[in-house]
Specification:
Elements (H helix, E strand, L loop, with lengths): L13 H6 L8 E6 L13 H11 L4 E4 L9 H7 L3 H17 L4 E7 L1 H10 L4 H5 L1 E7 L20 E4 L23 H5 L12 H26 L24 H11 L1 H6 L1
Parallel strand pairs: 1-2, 1-3, 3-4, 4-5
Helix pairs in contact: 2-9, 3-8, 4-5
Amino acid sequence: MTVATQKVNDNSNGMIDIIEGNAECASIAVIFARGTFDSGNIGVWVGPQFFEELSSRVPSAALQGVDPDAYKADLYGYLSEGGSDDGAVSLASTVNDYNSKCPDSVIVISGWSQGALVAHKALEQISSTALDKTAALVTFGDPNGVWNNTALPESIPSSSFSTSCVTGTIFDPLCAQIPSDFKFPTSLSDIVGPFASLPNVAVGIQQAEAAANLAIKFPAELAASWEAFVSNLTPQQFVRLMLTPQHFTYGNNGMASQAADFVAGLAPVQNSQ
């Protein structure tokens, strides 16, 4: 495929700028947790595209990623913790600090892949005052169902939860309903095999580079973690490791735009503008 040369910014620090006194409070703040192995603090696969769509609908929103020094977005955090605990603490800390600085602002928490798990966990750690101002949880390729299936806080009804998942004949196993005749992977080669086609879904030079890096890094880290975290999984739990190409399409398949529409249409967001 033809690879675009335009680069996206894999960092966004709108909330931190406000917390540090370098900008005025925004009426809406959105924080995003990137997926495993993604770069910067919002990555290249979903975060920049989601934020670009949001900016076109809610130009005043403060957009923020989770601190990469605290949230490594590595395979260890995913396999050993079901989503990085440190990442959840960092996300919650940023939200709490922002809420203390801007108590009237509406907050939206979001994440993709492992970042979705981090977002779920963070909701359990933010302060009650910040939670009261949290209008929604937005996730992409959310593996919550194949991990602990963490429930939403009572203050966030199902109508305030948007989750995007590739379904149909070719689906994202981390979030889609698994067919009864599905053959679960049982070996390292079964899991990493689909990565050969990951470059086919890359859009832009950064995603192409990320795809090439993932094709090397994921199998190597998975092999290193096999005995500690993988060998004891049941066949059904192996689905946690099925990072198929479909899992990397949320930024480019229209779902980031749909999620931005959801956020822009929330009553608290509309009322705050």
